[in-house]
Specification:
There is one protein chain. The protein has 357 residues and is of the alpha/beta class. It folds into two domains: 164 residues, Rossmann fold (3-Layer(aba) Sandwich), CATH 3.40.50; 87 residues, ACT domain (Alpha-Beta Plaits, 2-Layer Sandwich), CATH 3.30.70. Helix 4 packs parallel to helix 6. The structure holds adenosine-5'-diphosphate. The site of adenosine-5'-diphosphate (ADP) has 11 residues, from strand 2 and helix 2.
Length: 357
């Protein structure tokens, strides 16, 4: 294969034109004894992006966070925040860079003896910002997170969702380049989770804030992330726009983590699958913008030929993502599969069933 080699000045210009990502990890390794907690992680988060890093327990998420905020040293690889390498800095050089990262946590980590306003203003106090100025900034932030009027409350007087709003305000106090969310909604009920995610999305859009969300919940990624990276055994096994990863997961881990948010073949039907029978059972994934009309045309082929058993169309980042299970007459299966693939659907044959439903 021919490869085009660009003259050096053009290569340099191409590199210079690319905006520096807020976070850049390149081939990061961190081992604990025989355990490779991070085994060659490369990841970028661009300015204004919301990236979800998802993985099961033990996948390496906490180690990655600790390497990012300098609490843990990588064995090898590069870590840069806003273009500045942090992986080889001494502790005192790390301090100002740590302030570029605001963090929110599962258990909020608020100081119970301090009022809401003092919790929010604390990072500014540590930075030596004058009292009047830090209280002014803290009040602005209280307004942004929808808690005006609660400045004199103590954390124990707030609900979980309100505590996380205070956590978000505190994380934003020093105007960080990156908000790092470490399982920030894992301790909240679904309704409160949604309101916190809506707040994060709003802040991202209004202030252009860059967010890296670490989570084990696909629903969190689905709701607000632009891009998702899946980590497993210390490696990024899959990465892409959220709708595309949801529509077409490439790895086994991703498919299994998506089980809770994608239609699955109902147990009762799965039990009837066999290697022979008059009907074929197909899983159909449709991501084309005319997903509804594909279904309509499919239904037009007649109920003797095709039957819709289970599934639905979701909308992720404005893209239709449909997943259906249909049974088709075995003697007509080829025609139906051709029809579906001509309409950009992905078809997987799951097996045979004796009868339609
Ligand atoms: P996650 O946050 O995704 O649950 P972790 O980063 O905590 O994953 O852990 C990744 C792997 O590294 C796990 O196998 C874990 O047991 C191991 N590990 C993490 N921290 C340490 C440590 N301080 N000492 C020994 N092993 C560790």
């Amino acid at each position: 294969m021919n490869s085009i080699v660009l003259p050096a000045p053009i290569q340099a210009a191409a590199v210079a034109d690319r905006p520096e990502p807020v976070v850049r990890l390149t081939d990061v390794h961190r081992r604990f004894g025989a355990t490779p907690a991070l085994n060659g992680v490369s990841l970028e988060v661009g300015k204004g992006e919301i990236v979800g890093l998802i993985g099961r327990s033990g996948a390496g998420k906490s180690t990655l966070i600790r390497c990012l905020n300098g609490l843990e040293r990588a064995d090898s690889g590069e870590i840069a925040i806003e273009g500045r390498r942090i992986d080889r800095l001494a502790e005192q050089e790390l301090q100002p860079l740590r302030r570029r990262i605001g963090m929110i946590f599962q258990h909020f980590n608020l100081l119970s003896a301090k009022t809401v306003i003092d919790n929010i203003a604390l990072p500014l106090k540590i930075e030596g910002v004058a009292k009047a100025e830090r209280l002014k900034r803290a009040r602005e932030l209280l307004d942004i997170v929808g808690l005006s009027g609660r400045e004199r409350s103590y954390p124990s007087q707030l609900s979980g969702g309100q505590k996380q709003r205070v956590g978000i305000a505190r994380a934003l106090a020093a105007r960080p380049a990156l908000l790092l969310s470490d399982e920030a909604t894992s301790a909240l009920d679904p309704e409160t989770t949604h309101s916190i995610l809506a707040l994060l999305k709003d802040i991202n859009q209004r202030l252009g804030l860059t967010i890296l969300l670490i989570t084990h919940e696909m629903e969190v990624v689905r709701t607000i992330a632009d891009r998702v990276a899946v980590i497993e055994a210390g490696r990024i096994v899959e990465e892409g726009p959220v709708w595309s990863v949801f529509a077409n997961p490439q790895s086994q881990v991703t498919a299994s983590m998506l089980r809770s948010v994608r239609p699955q073949l109902p147990e009762a039907i799965a039990r009837r699958l066999s290697t022979a029978g008059k009907h074929l059972l197909l899983a159909v994934d449709i991501t084309s913008p005319d997903a509804q009309s594909v279904l309509f045309d499919l239904a037009g082929l007649g109920s003797k030929t095709v039957r819709l058993l289970h599934g639905g169309i979701d909308h992720i980042q404005g893209q239709p993502v449909g997943r259906f299970f249909i049974s088709v007459a075995a003697n007509d299966a080829e025609r139906i599969q051709k029809f579906l693939t001509s309409r950009l659907a992905r078809v997987e044959v799951l097996g045979h069933v004796a009868d339609h439903a």
